[in-house]
Structure formats: C-alpha cells, structure tokens
Structure prediction request, 367 residues.
Amino acid sequence: MKVVILGCGRLGAYLARRMDQEGHQVTVVDRNAEAFARLGSDFHGAMVLGTGIDQDIMRRAGIEEADAFIAVTNGDNTNAMASEIAKLVFKVPRVVARLYDPVREDTYHTLGLMETVCPTIIGADRILEMVADNHEASKAK
Amino acid sequence: MYIIVAGGGKVGYYLAKSLLNQGHEVLVIERDKHKCDVLSADLGSICQRGDATDSIMMEEAGMERADIVIAVTGDDEDNLMICQMAKKKFKVNRTIARINNPKNEKIFKLLGIDQTVSVTDLILAQIEREIPAQSLVHLLTLREAGATFVEAKVPENSPAIGKPLQALNIPADCVIPLIIRNGKGVVPHGETALAAGDEVVAVTTLEHENVLERVFGGVPVQRATS
Prediction:
C-alpha cells in the first residue's frame, strides 16, 4: 500500500524502514532535511521536505493517492492537525496519530476522526506490569 | 464574561487589554516568561504562564467555566488544538481562532471552530484598499451566511456616474447601505446619483461580487484564492 509518514524521528524513521522492507510504497515528510539520514542508504521510499500541516506539501507527498497516513512528529498539535487534514480534506482511509498527552489522546480518540496512539499510557502500562511482575516474583522466592 | 486568551504576543496583549476595558474577566495563557512579565506589569495579574495546549494547564485556567476561548498564537496547529480541546473536552460554547495560513480556514470551519480571523487575509484586504487599481475591497466576509461586505470606489470613467442607483443593474440580493462622498457618509435611496470618487459600501452574496464590480465600472480584480 501507499503510505505517507509525517515526522522522521526515531519512530517515523523506524516505521518507514520497516514498511519499506515489507514492500510498501513509503513517503516520509519532515521539515528538517538532516532527519532523513535516519532512513539509511538502503531506503527506497521518497522524502519530502516541509511541514505536514501545509496542504501543498501533503499533495507533493502523494497524500491524494495514499491508503494510510501516519503522523509521528514530536508535536501533538501538529500530529492532530495534520491527521485531521489527511482525513477531512484528502479522505485518506486510514489515519493514525501519535499523541503524547493522554488527555489529548482521549479527546481525539473520542472524536473518532483518526486512530490514536499514546506512548505515555502504553509505556506506563508496560512498566507497571513489569514492576508488578517483579514484585510477585520476589514474593514467591 | 470569562474569556481565556491563549497566546500573549502582540495580538493577545491588545486583545486582553480591550477585553478588560470592556469589563470582562480575562486570563491570558502564555509560554514565554518575558511576555508574561510584560502582561502582568501592564495589565495586572491576568497571565498564567504555560503551554496553552496542555490539558492540565487548560484545567488550571478554569476552562470549563469559560464563556469564550480565543486562540491567537502564531501557530495554526496550536490554535486548532486549543479550540478543539476547549469545545470537545471543556464544552466551551464559543471558540475563536486566529489563522496564520489562509489555506487552513477551511479545515478550521470543518472542525467546528465557531469563528476564525485570518490575519493574512486582513492584511491583504488592507493593502488592496491602498492600491487604486483594485476597485473592490473586502471589508468583511460572512462565509457561512454566504454574504460579504465590500467597498467599491467609483472611478472617473465609470458608466454609473450621474445615474440614480435604481437605474443601475444591481442584483436583487445586493444592498447598498452607505455611500462615502468626500469623506462623509450618505445613506442612499433609489434616486441617489453616483459621483466619481464615491466609495460605495455594499452587502452582497458571494456569487454577485463580480456583477457589482461591473456595475460600478471598475477593473475586475484577480484575488488570490486558496
């Protein structure tokens, strides 16, 4: 499938490389050209320089034909707005946004325009599980 | 009314000042310490320092009891987030957002922000007014109502000069409430005849803007549209 990934940080670059290896047609958008170095030399996808809340940049990235849009910049507000543009203006079927703030994530999840991922909650849940597991294990000794 | 202003830059500062003068309860949320200090020194303790898009900050600001939330930061994504959170999470009745990139106006409307102010468009309109070649100046556009207030200057060579208003082919859904002649406002009636240099203020539907332009004999204006 055709996918546009906004944000070429650690998560964006990792996702782009994996989807590229799996044979998807990937375009990565970032406003910082140096960020594209994270993609490595064996990346086959396209790179577009610019901000993801600009509709002209999104068009250049091929958003009009995209099957999926993933917003993973380090700014919650940028991710939310870019996703809303992808969904409402460009009618992208599948839209996923990363939102660090759990309250914002909850609100946008409820709005139902996009799928949301909150690393804060996922991370906290996992850590709590580990702590609880360790506690159980030490009690068992 | 309790009004929260997000962003304490130049727009936020003067907005807060005039709202205070009108007797409203105002709180400004601003990230920058220096701007907060200036606001507090000039306008009293009405400034809360922090990220206005942060939900905890919004709660501390008492957003759920705000009557109006106005987002005037320099970033459209922040203004959108603030207004959406205000509306959806804190059930604020009225939200107003400043738009920096005119292309974003549509998306703000789609997402239910009550009112938007596109600073770039306003400046463009102001400049249009100063350039004589542009015959039609947009004063105010009510996009939802499909209506616009325009001002047309009657040029020297206009075919409309000397004719009474009722003899001109003015579309039915267009009203002329005011003519400015030699700097003075005149409320026109059907028999009022136009003179060169008159500034005609008209309320019209968006479709009939161009017709008006022809009636008053101006050069068609190519307006940059998004």
